[in-house]
């Protein structure tokens, strides 16, 4: 469900804007001045929609259109080819997404939903409210670059640009360019196609550029941040498994989980996954350490069938099991409740007594006796002592936020690489999504004009009747619009209703 608080805030803000606009327009005293003020600044206010238009960027667009005519010709021809391919690819992708959404509606398998390439984004539902700024800034940047492509391509084809603008519809920001329709209708269909394809082409280029910067981010930040030395803790959830005096703190560098080395966040995730799906590791301790006085009574079975021997729910003791040899053919598993930190600090991990014999002949391998799926994990974060974790490994993963980037200097902010990384990921996702969605042959999107121009450029000798070509285009647009509407409707239902 959509968060009620977010919905109330959005509705209250738009009601205030609409009420103020209505009062000023109905006022005999302020109406003329208010409408003149709006017109002079290129503002337009309507329910759930605010738009600003200006001509101040026209010179910049004209300058870009004259930089290098030969290069621009090749550039926008590449965009033309990409736009045609993207039209077909977007339809195939939407059909595949619709099939995946339908499959997810008819099954409870969560993995199917995670395989979708396109998903409807609803702030506060599948978009964390803490990341709304990333989302809206990346969406606005993608829209501006999209319209920049249209404007430069239009001026290069001798089509006048009346202005550039930015709008906000409900919550979503966007951009637009106002082209002189008479000039646009006079140029050839191929020229029109270059103009209409320029937007999705620029979105694709922005997506690739952001992806390259994201991949090379460690290189760009190398003078200020180092990588490969561990995973830096940037946040610890309060009252979580990693919180506490002997837990993890912001600024700690995790270098290992048990015997699994951690050089970055990817290693942290893979090590936790490995520990979750492998048997509990043991620890080499001297045989003399297993003193009878540490036993807290006879071991007993838990409800899941595992054994426990610590009856007092101690925060410092843990039940360990080990194999005790009673003779040549008599091997018995024993249990002892022991102070866990004293027993495992500085000890080697093991799988059997043979692993311990390599280090000390008198050592034996003891293994924590825990419930099924529960693990005992030593978290190494020097120079501090090990953090000892007992529980489900996914809980540890969700309790801590980490980054690969470790500051070289104390004055550098820990979260700067995270800000850049998160923003670039949003740019990649949203710019790519705009390239796909705007390529769909659908009414009111770039795909409509791209399809019409393509049909005029290719079918004029095959279907000589213009009305028949328009009728073909209409049915293709109707099918594309229905496909996109079905994806949006089912996507919204999957996000908000389930």
Descriptive report:
With 498 residues, the chain is an alpha+beta fold. The protein contains 16 helices and 20 strands. The strands form six sheets. Strands 14-13-16-10-15 form a five-stranded antiparallel sheet. A four-stranded antiparallel sheet has the order 1-2-3-4. The protein has a four-stranded antiparallel sheet with strand order 9-8-17-18. β13 and β14 (331-339) form a beta hairpin. α4 (69-105) crosses α14 (416-439). The longest helix is centred in the N-terminal third of the chain and has 37 residues, at 69-105. The chain is elongated.
Quick rundown:
The protein has 498 residues and is an alpha+beta fold. It is built from 16 helices and 20 strands. Helix 15 packs antiparallel against helix 16.
Topology readout:
Layout: H1 4-26, H2 31-40, E1 43-46, E2 49-54, H3 58-65, H4 69-105, H5 110-114, H6 132-156, E3 161-169, E4 172-179, H7 181-186, H8 189-215, H9 217-220, E5 225-226, E6 231-236, E7 253-254, E8 256-257, E9 260-261, H10 265-276, E10 282-286, E11 300-301, E12 307-308, E13 317-325, E14 331-339, H11 340-344, E15 349-350, H12 353-357, E16 363-368, E17 375-380, E18 387-391, H13 393-399, E19 400-403, E20 406-407, H14 416-439, H15 446-458, H16 466-496
Antiparallel strand pairs: 1-2, 2-3, 3-4, 5-20, 6-7, 6-19, 8-9, 8-17, 10-15, 10-16, 11-12, 13-14, 13-16, 17-18
Q: Tags for this entry?
A:
four-stranded antiparallel sheet; five-stranded antiparallel sheet; alpha+beta; elongated; 498 residues
Helix content range of the residues, please?
A: 40-55%
Low-confidence stretches: none
Question: Major β-sheet, in short?
Answer: 5 strands, antiparallel
Q: Tally the helices.
A: 16
């Amino acid at each position: 469900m959509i968060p009620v608080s977010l919905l109330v805030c959005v509705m209250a803000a738009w009601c205030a804007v609409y009420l103020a606009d209505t009062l000023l327009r109905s006022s005999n005293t302020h109406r003329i001045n208010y409408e003149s003020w709006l017109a002079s600044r290129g503002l337009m206010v309507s329910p759930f929609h605010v738009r600003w238009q200006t001509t101040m960027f026209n010179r910049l667009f004209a300058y870009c259109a004259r930089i290098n005519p030969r290069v621009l010709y090749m550039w926008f021809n590449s965009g033309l080819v990409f736009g045609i391919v993207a039209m077909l690819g977007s339809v195939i992708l939407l059909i595949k997404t619709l099939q995946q959404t339908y499959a997810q509606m008819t099954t409870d398998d969560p993995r199917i939903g995670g395989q979708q390439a396109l998903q409807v984004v609803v702030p506060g539902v599948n978009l964390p409210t803490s990341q709304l700024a990333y989302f809206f800034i990346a969406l606005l940047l993608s829209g501006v670059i999209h319209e920049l492509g249209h404007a430069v391509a239009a001026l290069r084809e001798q089509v006048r640009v009346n202005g550039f603008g930015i709008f906000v519809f409900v919550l979503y920001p966007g951009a637009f360019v106002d082209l002189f329709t008479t000039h646009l209708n006079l140029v050839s269909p191929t020229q029109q196609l270059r103009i209409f394809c320029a937007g999705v082409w620029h979105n694709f280029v922005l997506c690739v550029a952001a992806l390259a910067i994201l991949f090379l981010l460690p290189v760009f930040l190398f003078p200020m941040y180092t990588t490969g030395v561990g995973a830096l803790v940037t946040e610890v959830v309060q009252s979580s498994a990693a919180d506490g005096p002997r837990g993890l703190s912001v600024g700690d560098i995790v270098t290992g989980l048990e015997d699994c080395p951690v050089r970055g966040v990817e290693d942290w995730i893979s090590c936790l996954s490995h520990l979750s799906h492998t048997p509990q590791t043991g620890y080499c301790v001297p045989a003399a350490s297993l003193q009878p006085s540490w036993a807290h009574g006879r071991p007993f079975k838990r409800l899941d069938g595992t054994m426990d021997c610590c009856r007092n729910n101690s925060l410092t003791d843990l039940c360990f099991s080990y194999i005790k040899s009673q003779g040549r053919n008599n091997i018995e598993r024993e249990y002892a409740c022991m102070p866990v930190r004293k027993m495992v600090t500085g000890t080697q991990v093991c799988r059997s007594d043979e692993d311990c014999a390599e280090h000390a002949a008198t050592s034996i391998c003891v293994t924590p006796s825990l419930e099924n799926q529960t693990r005992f994990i030593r978290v190494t974060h020097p120079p501090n002592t090990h953090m000892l974790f007992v529980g489900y490994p996914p809980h540890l993963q969700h309790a801590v936020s980490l980054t690969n980037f470790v500051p070289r200097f104390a004055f550098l902010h820990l979260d700067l690489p995270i800000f850049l990384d998160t923003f670039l990921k949003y740019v990649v996702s949203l710019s790519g999504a705009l390239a796909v969605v705007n390529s769909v042959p659908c009414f009111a999107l770039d795909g409509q004009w791209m399809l019409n121009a393509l049909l005029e450029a290719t079918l004029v000798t095959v279907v000589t009747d213009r009305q028949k070509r328009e009728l073909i285009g209409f049915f293709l647009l109707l099918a594309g619009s229905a496909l996109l509407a079905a994806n949006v409707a089912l996507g919204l239902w999957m996000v908000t209703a389930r």
